[in-house]
């Protein structure tokens, strides 16, 4: 017996019937309704993550095209292709196919350029995006796991770039692989075994390009894609963070809905990112392998430099003294082994910071309102110190370029980096913290006395004063919305019965660090309502 509902379904358009059928089994209507009406704040800094996302999409699209023409083989041939200067040169099929892509495949060189530039911009955008999240405290509960996902994306993208950079088998990339192999060999006990396994024998072997190819186009992109999806799911699941302002609380989000406004902006932004990358690729040559030549183990390219995101790892090794330890017939190359250990520690310190700060501050609440960096001076100072260390090592990774371009002694540069490695972050920390406290004082002064107008007025008794314009309520809210934390205390050393209370060393350390975050000299008290009323009532206000 047919029901009215069945009759209605038969009369509905085919597309609607398919949608109803799917909803009855997947429940997509309810999920889509909530997701498509998701509200996103409208602030320019949130676009940094989108730059990384759309750059990743460009990498995937161009990478698929390049795989159709690249031959990941180290079999040697004599080149007789269209690039005449290389005629008669012995090279691997990988290098020869790279030349073919550059000179014989329609649009091949442009696609290669887009792929390489998109990779650089992808890593740079992730780096800047993570710094935005760090300095504003967006990593706090409940977003610690999403921060870890973002860090893994950044970390794995470094190795994805390394494997892709090495595929053409040119002299520059081969030198980079040789550098990586030297670092592997410096690993005690297992270094030689790892090297033999990775290269399939003595360096350079005959398998490394094929293995890097599989890792570069299959394993790492698959992991990265999974992490991107997980990262975006958590962004949708958690309420989006937003800067403090009128009407903005931990319980709401002020902005535009995902559909249609945000989706339209995001779609247009994708084409903007793609267009900018294409323009850069068309006018700025990168990695001209035909000018470098194929890799030969007995040659090193002049001015060999890695891509910027791995420059700090090379800087560690370049400025490290050539220390060695010899025992029981074995040599431990400390000049390579110590930097090999510092390299992941510099990155891991960034990955675990949200958990360290949560433990130090004891703050287990959910946070959806972002901090202004000046209102978290200790965290901001740590971030600037980390960046200072990163860029100091980046200079060390190009010490020969600095020496030749600025006519400096390479030994002077190396010693400068060695000293700055220890001194630079400390100086950056102290200066940044003082700047943040100075900005807090200026905000407090602005709240109490208003904004300087530049208008000078002479009072009846002869005094000259500057007229200040009171702030509107929105500005007052923004400048006073941050929390004032009280430093932690260990508490009484005895309980109510007079029994000595034991305090663990970990708790003592936590309280001491907490005072470093929130103690005297780490935050400027906000103006109170009483102070504001007294000033604005005419007592001392111009």
From TrEMBL:
- Has the keyword Glycosyltransferase been applied to this entry? no
Residues spanning the membrane: 51-70, 116-135, 147-167, 179-200, 212-237, 269-292, 327-356, 376-395, 415-432
- Its primary localisation, in coarse terms, equals membrane
Q: What does it catalyze? A: a quinol + 2 Fe(III)-[cytochrome c](out) = a quinone + 2 Fe(II)-[cytochrome c](out) + 2 H(+)(out)
**UniProt cross-references to InterPro entries, sorted A to Z:** Cyt_b/b6_N (IPR005797), Cytb/b6-like_sf (IPR027387), Di-haem_cyt_TM (IPR016174)
Domain named Cytochrome b/b6 N-terminal region profile is located at 18-244
Q: Where is this region: Disordered?
A: 520-542
Query: Per its record, what are the GO molecular function terms?
Result: metal ion binding; oxidoreductase activity; quinol-cytochrome-c reductase activity
Gene Ontology annotations of biological process type: respiratory electron transport chain
Regarding the membrane, this protein is recorded as:
Multi-pass membrane protein
Enzyme Commission numbers on file: 7.1.1.8
Q: Which UniProt keywords apply?
A: Cell membrane, Electron transport, Heme, Iron, Membrane, Metal-binding, Respiratory chain, Translocase, Transmembrane, Transmembrane helix, Transport
One term under GO cellular component: plasma membrane
Q: Output the Pfam families linked to this UniProt entry.
A: Cytochrom_B_N_2
Cofactor requirements of the protein: heme
Q: Where in the cell is it found?
A: Cell membrane
Q: What is this protein called?
A: Cytochrome bc1 complex cytochrome b subunit
This chain's source organism reads Streptomyces niveus (Streptomyces spheroides)
């Amino acid at each position: 017996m047919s029901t009215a509902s069945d009759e209605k379904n038969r009369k509905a358009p085919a597309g609607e019937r398919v949608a109803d059928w799917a909803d009855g089994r997947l429940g997509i209507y309810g999920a889509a309704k909530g997701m498509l009406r998701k509200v996103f704040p409208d602030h320019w800094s949130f676009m940094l993550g989108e730059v990384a996302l759309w750059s990743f999409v460009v990498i995937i699209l161009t990478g698929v095209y390049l795989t159709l023409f690249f031959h990941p083989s180290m079999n040697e041939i004599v080149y007789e292709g269209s690039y005449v200067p290389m005629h008669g040169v012995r090279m691997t099929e990988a290098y020869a196919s790279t030349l073919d892509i550059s000179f014989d495949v329609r649009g091949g060189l442009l696609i290669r350029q887009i792929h390489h530039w998109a990779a650089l911009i992808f890593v740079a955008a992730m780096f800047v995006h993570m710094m935005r999240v760090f300095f504003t405290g967006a990593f706090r509960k409940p977003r610690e796991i999403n921060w870890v996902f973002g860090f893994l994306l950044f970390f794995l993208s470094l190795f994805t770039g390394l494997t892709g950079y090495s595929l053409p088998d040119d002299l520059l990339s081969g030198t980079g692989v040789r550098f990586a192999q030297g670092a592997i060999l410096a690993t005690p006990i297992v270094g030689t075994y790892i090297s033999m396994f990775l290269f399939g024998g003595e360096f350079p072997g005959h398998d490394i390009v094929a293995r890097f190819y599989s890792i570069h186009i299959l394993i790492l992109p698959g992991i990265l894609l999974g992490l991107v999806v997980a990262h975006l799911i958590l962004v949708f699941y958690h309420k989006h963070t937003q800067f403090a302002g009128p009407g903005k609380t931990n319980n709401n989000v002020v902005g535009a809905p995902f559909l249609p406004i945000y989706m339209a902006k995001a779609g247009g932004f994708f084409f903007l990112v793609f267009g900018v990358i294409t323009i850069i690729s068309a006018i700025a040559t990168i990695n001209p392998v035909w000018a470098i030549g194929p890799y030969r183990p007995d040659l090193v390219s002049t001015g060999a430099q890695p891509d910027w995101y791995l420059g700090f790892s090379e800087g560690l090794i370049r400025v490290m003294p050539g220390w060695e330890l010899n025992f029981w017939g074995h040599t431990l190359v400390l000049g390579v082994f110590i930097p090999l250990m510092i390299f992941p520690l510099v990155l891991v310190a960034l990955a675990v910071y949200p958990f360290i700060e949560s433990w130090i501050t004891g703050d287990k609440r959910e946070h959806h309102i972002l901090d202004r960096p000046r209102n978290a001076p200790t965290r901001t100072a740590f971030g600037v110190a980390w960046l200072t260390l990163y860029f100091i090592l980046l200079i060390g990774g190009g010490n020969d370029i600095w020496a030749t371009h600025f006519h400096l002694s390479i030994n002077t540069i190396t010693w400068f980096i060695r000293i700055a490695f220890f001194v630079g972050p400390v100086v950056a920390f102290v200066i940044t913290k003082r700047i943040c406290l100075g900005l807090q004082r200026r905000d407090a002064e602005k709240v109490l006395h208003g904004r300087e107008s530049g208008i000078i007025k002479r009072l009846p008794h002869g005094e000259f004063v500057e007229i200040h314009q009171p702030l509107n309520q929105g500005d007052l809210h923004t400048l006073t919305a941050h929390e004032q934390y009280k430093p932690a205390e260990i508490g009484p050393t005895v309980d109510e019965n007079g029994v000595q209370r034991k305090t663990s060393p970990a708790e003592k350390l936590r309280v001491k660090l907490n005072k470093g975050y929130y103690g005297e000299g780490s935050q400027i008290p906000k103006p109170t309502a009483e102070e504001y009323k007294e000033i604005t009532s005419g007592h001392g206000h111009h």
